[in-house]
Backbone:
């Protein structure tokens, strides 16, 4: 199993690209349009494309890559100079 699938959650928007031998899944930042993850099972992921009105259930062995954006760093507050 690809370790990035552990971070894929229901409700996230993703981009799904068909590769020669499988799929590349990219989790999109919040607010960006994309396909919605509707179910994550132990050996599959269900992705719904509302634009094309298509739902795909993809076995995990077909994922060639899973890209998850790095969490955004929270800026530290610096003390104000007096």
Residues:
């Amino acid at each position: 199993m690809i370790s990035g699938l552990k971070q894929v959650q229901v409700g996230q928007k993703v981009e799904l690209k068909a590769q020669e031998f499988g799929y590349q899944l990219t989790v999109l930042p919040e607010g960006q349009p994309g396909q919605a993850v509707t179910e994550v099972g132990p050996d599959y992921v269900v992705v719904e494309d509302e634009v094309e009105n298509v739902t795909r259930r993809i076995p995990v062995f077909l994922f060639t890559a899973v890209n998850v954006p790095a969490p955004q760093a929270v800026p530290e507050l610096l003390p104000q100079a007096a």
The mean pLDDT is 85. The longest strand covers residues 13-19.
